């Protein structure tokens, strides 16, 4: 809850003391995430505060637009196992930071000017990626599944004519044709609606 509570402080328009947070693993824990740092100064100050040797998560208020961004950052000196574990936990942690407009590629020294987040003119996520500083994460749209069987609107059932025998003709390797006669199945029966029921 401490991460969600701190994120609420970042998102609070009346709060001028906290506009970014950095979260990471608590002590030697492999699963517990806590707030490692928080403060004001936006993306610029957050980027200067990134801890060395760790994989961290965070979020910032963009001072110029008032929009919110999240990030995942793994320092080059962070242990490989920590980086792998953190990348698996990334979505779960960033989902706690609700109301974000997108994700940025955080790095030491990143400035708000490099992100250039435009003001949204409509629905959707329109973050640029021209500088390499931001990554657009469009939300997936749900498409209804296509039915495997399309119901017909026909009132009357289509009559089924049962063949008494069928003839199959297939060529043989000598270019002769071979004919096989198959009798109709005695186990096929019609139900009252005209559908075939296999017994």
From TrEMBL:
Pfam families: Cofilin_ADF
Region described as Disordered: spans on this chain: 116-199
InterPro entries recorded: ADF-H, ADF-H/Gelsolin-like_dom_sf
Composition bias type Low complexity, residue spans: 149-188
Taxonomy, superkingdom: Eukaryota
Domain ADF-H: 4-107
MF-aspect GO terms: actin binding
Protein name (record): ADF-H domain-containing protein
Organism: Cyclophora tenuis
């Amino acid at each position: 809850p401490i991460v969600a509570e701190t994120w609420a402080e970042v998102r609070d328009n009346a709060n001028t003391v906290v506009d970014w947070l950095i979260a990471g693993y608590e002590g030697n824990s492999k699963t517990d995430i806590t707030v490692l740092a928080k403060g004001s100064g936006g993306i610029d100050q957050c980027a200067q505060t990134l801890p060395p040797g760790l994989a961290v998560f965070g979020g910032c208020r963009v001072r110029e637009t008032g929009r919110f961004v999240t990030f995942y950052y793994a320092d080059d000196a962070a242990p490989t196992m920590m980086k792998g574990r953190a990348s698996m936990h990334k979505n779960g942690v960033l989902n706690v930071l609700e109301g974000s407009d997108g994700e940025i590629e955080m790095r030491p020294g990143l400035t708000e000017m490099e992100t250039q987040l435009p003001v949204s003119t409509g629905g959707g996520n329109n973050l640029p990626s021209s500088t390499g500083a931001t990554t657009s994460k469009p939300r997936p749209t749900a498409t209804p599944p296509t039915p495997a069987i399309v119901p017909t609107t026909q009132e009357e059932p289509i009559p089924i004519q049962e063949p008494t025998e069928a003839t199959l003709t297939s060529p043989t390797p000598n270019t002769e044709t071979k004919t096989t006669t198959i009798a109709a199945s005695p186990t096929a029966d019609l139900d009252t609606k005209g559908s075939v029921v296999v017994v």
